[in-house]
Amino acid sequence: MELIIPFDSQGNTPMYEQIYQHIKREIRQGNLRSGSRLPSTRVLAEHLKVSRSTTQMAYEQLLSEGYIEAVPCRGYFIAAIEELVQVSEPPAGRFVTEEEAGPEGYTVDFSPRGIDLDSFPYNTWRKISKNILVDDNKALFLNGDPQGEYPLREAIRSYLHSARGVHCSPDQIIVGAGNEYLLMLLSLILGSRQVIAMENPTYKQACQVFISQGYLVVPVSMDKHGMSIDGLAACQNPEPRAAYIMPAHQHPLGIVMPVKRRQELLSWAYEKEDRYLIEDDYDSEFRYKGKPIPALQGMDRGGRVIYIGTFSQSIAPAIRISFLVLPPGLIQEYKKKAGFYASTVSRIDQNILYQFLTEGHYERHLNRMRSIYKGKHDCLMGALKAFDGDFHMAGEHAGLHVLLTHKGGWSEQELVERAAKAQVKVYGLSRYFIHPELNPPSSTVVLGYAKLKEEEILLGCRLLQEAWVS
Amino acid sequence: MELIIPFDSQGNTPMYEQIYQHIKREIRQGNLRSGSRLPSTRVLAEHLKVSRSTTQMAYEQLLSEGYIEAVPCRGYFIAAIEELVQVSEPPAGRFVTEEEAGPEGYTVDFSPRGIDLDSFPYNTWRKISKNILVDDNKALFLNGDPQGEYPLREAIRSYLHSARGVHCSPDQIIVGAGNEYLLMLLSLILGSRQVIAMENPTYKQACQVFISQGYLVVPVSMDKHGMSIDGLAACQNPEPRAAYIMPAHQHPLGIVMPVKRRQELLSWAYEKEDRYLIEDDYDSEFRYKGKPIPALQGMDRGGRVIYIGTFSQSIAPAIRISFLVLPPGLIQEYKKKAGFYASTVSRIDQNILYQFLTEGHYERHLNRMRSIYKGKHDCLMGALKAFDGDFHMAGEHAGLHVLLTHKGGWSEQELVERAAKAQVKVYGLSRYFIHPELNPPSSTVVLGYAKLKEEEILLGCRLLQEAWVS
Asked: Which of A78, A122, A430, A457 is 20 to 30 Å from A305 by CA-CA measure?
């Protein structure tokens, strides 16, 4: 039996998902008859020019759903279809996540999530992995330092110092599997039932973590420079212990916080003992206009800034490595309250990242990505010129998304629906608000461009223009 | 300059640590003069027959502590020692963890932690990693399913079903970076301020997690079959929502819970709505006597057992992959309260493990380890025959440690100290008690043997015999 599988190499659907879907469809439609034998995973892999793990994953899924059967020493056979009682469709998100699922009928999806993976240095990553998995590195398979391996923390310190102006020692750094895990850890360090002020709109995931930890989240409104100082000062009852802010490129508003506001926030923190700013240095790697502004952490002389950064955004989402930089005063609290939590990142992965950082690959990768994203950004800016009369633009100086606000006061829902009719997906701003029902109806949509090719950006803008402007 | 480094290939100190320590010592003792040039990391690696990452890590550490300096395009030079103001010793655990640090002056360390890594299938692991990091697996670098990749969960389900008699669907499985992380997640799922009954003595790390999550931990005493049912039933005010138990091989007592006690515990759970047993299937892979007893989860017909297992113990501690099996009733709670937490395990690592499981490597590895550990176990049993007159033995039917209790009533402290004088490290039982001060003084010590070679076991027992028996 020869399988001819029409691969969609443009889309984001993984190969194994495509193989699995194709064979399943063929079985359901009766094109593959029960009892007939499938090619072995090896033969199919060679035939399709994919890796064997790809065909194995496809078969495994078919097996687990009962479409095929494995007969020892003989191979894989199509199951008798009449025995397939009520085989339900795999639930949504089973193989594919939101980002991968593709535009679901949309021609262009301006998703503000996801990154461009076409330029990921697969070869470098593979080579480093291979070199690390050698026998004289046996110790790497043992449990490591709960805070993260010291050399990696030193490499992160060195990067943060030179690229972001962060002042710290490796002893202040805690490496963990993703921002959400580290915010869980931070909640333990700060103690239970705290009050946290958050920018509104904000990064909802962080908000959910704090709420799930039993924290009270107090939303503070934004002005054009970032979190409103008056709004923050007005939070008196209860009084926040910390404020969570994104000075580099606020998510979602895209505001780059000016130095004056940073100083005002630091003054707020210094007013009371044990008050903190949590600086999420989101999107700080990508800036298109003006000089990069160093992290707020570097301005802090009082040990009141908790810094959080990640490699998931700048390298790849699957690299589940983020880091906290705690002020010295909180390190003791960490050791006491959470020091017994073993590291959530395998030592092997930490060492791959260590090599990636110290051999200069990370810097090269960031430079390449900066220029790729700059190209996409400029392409989008050019195409959005036609929208000038009808829309305000914001957030375009950094990061991987921009905001468009309709001057005529169309609701975001109307904008989203009109775009959807033109097969374009855009995202309403209200999803980022902590209490969307309490905020005035928005006329703003968010357009992300990291994952799109330039021709998709141009096409998307043309379709949006027809839907919104003409 | 040619460096001759006396490697200790027997000990567990990593190569890079040895190189770093050696060069540091040479600088401090003045044998390496300031201003002199070190060989490049490449040359040193070739010279020492180690990988280049090893020499790089050693140099990185020396750099970060100021012992050497990097001069662009010229290489590494010894720093001027008089400028090394107050270079403090690296804090304990900086490069090396408790397990790796070696016996710290002990001839033999019967550490109950750690595993035998000599038989780790490095080649297989490397080959799988290499095959996975190919370009057509680009999707692996994207964010995955928060619960863990579906094919991996299916492979875990299949393993648990055949090896442990666990009944579940992949939808009930949550993959996470280590037991402690998953217990944090479980705490979110069960809700705040719960009461948990725990075996006493127990796995202290789990106890610490619950306490750090604001839970009240109620210790329940043990009888020879496991957690005392009377003791558990007596916990009325407050009444525990769940009991945390280790039926396969209780840590540290080594009790294999008989079926009757398992049924009694299930009955306790069924008495009230929303009561649970948390089954930590610790050490279940290694059993030396009698037929393996399936997991308690497989006996549960009421959806009241939460099962937790890990690959850190059975493959390698650095493999930070554990899994929860939730009863169907708690899956909705998980999705509501913690479903937004992204997976803490990278998709790449999940796929390496997936291949390792589905290609049969895991089964082969377990079989090999079983026979290796059985050999060590039998060796220890033979050597401990001489202790029969003075000691009771327990916990020897499974797992990777045994307990010795002095019949004459020597305190554990006396046993530990006498052993230490003979250069042997053993571990007192009291460290595993939740409130050690409330428990009667113990005469019991714990001897782990997973990491020791047979000759070390024999030597250790001979030394102990002199210290305790003669």
From this structure: A430
pLDDT for A43 equals 84
Return the CATH fold of A1-93: Arc Repressor Mutant, subunit A (1.10.10)
pTM for this predicted structure = 0.75
What is the amino acid identity at position A406?
H
Tell me how many residue pairs between chain A and chain B have CB atoms under 8 A apart: 242
What the block records as the tokens of B185 is 């997640």
d(CA A278, CA B455): 54
For chain B, the residue count is 470
Q: Report the run of H or E that residue A322 belongs to, with start and end.
A: strand A322-325
Would you state the pLDDT for residue A193? 85
Q: B362-395 pLDDT, tens per residue?
A: 988 888 888 899 999 999 999 999 999 999 999 8
Give the pLDDT score at A21: 81
Across the interface, whether the CB atoms of A126 and B133 are under 8 A apart is answered yes
pLDDT digits (tens, 9 = 90+) for B154-201: 999 999 998 889 999 999 999 999 999 999 999 999 998 899 999 999
396-415 of A, contacting B, C-beta below 8 A: none
Percent of chain B with pLDDT over 70: 89
| Cβ contact A405:A443 at 8 Å | yes
Answer for the pair A224, A256: CB distance below 8 angstroms, yes or no: no
CA distance A52 to B281: 33
Residue A396 C-alpha from the chain's centroid = 19
- Sign (positive or negative) of CA dihedral A350, A354, A355, A357: positive
With a CB cutoff of 8 Å and minimum separation 6, the contacts of A335 are: none
* A35 close to B (CB below 8 A): no
Query: A residues 165-224 near B, CB within 8 Å?
Result: 170-171, 177-178, 180-181, 184, 188, 192, 205, 208-209, 212-214
Per-residue HEC secondary structure of A144-187 comes to CCCCCCHHHHHHHHHHHHHHHCCCCCHHHEEEECCHHHHHHHHH
For B99-114+364-468, CATH gives 3.90.1150.10
Q: Measure Cα distances from B83 to B20, B25, B62, B77 in Å.
A: 19, 16, 14, 14
Decide which of 3.40.50.720, 3.30.40.10, 3.40.640.10, 1.20.1250.20 is the CATH code for B123-359: 3.40.640.10
B1-93 and B123-359: identical CATH topology: no
Span B202-224, mean pLDDT? 92
Question: What pLDDT, on the 0 to 100 scale, is given for residue B98?
Answer: 40
Please state whether the peptide bond connecting residue A201 to the residue before it is cis, i.e. omega within 30 degrees of 0: yes
Residue B111 CB neighbours (<10 A): 21
Q: Which of A28-42, A255-269, B355-369, B417-431 has the lowest mean pLDDT?
A: A28-42
Ordered by start, the domain boundaries in chain A are: 1-93, 99-114+364-468, 123-359
Condensed to tens digits (0 to 9), the pLDDT of residues A242-294 reads: 999 999 989 999 898 988 999 999 999 999 999 999 999 987 788 877 666 78
Q: Is B90's Cβ below 8 Å from some Cβ in A?
A: yes
- Smallest CA–CA distance, residue B55 to chain A, in Å, is 11
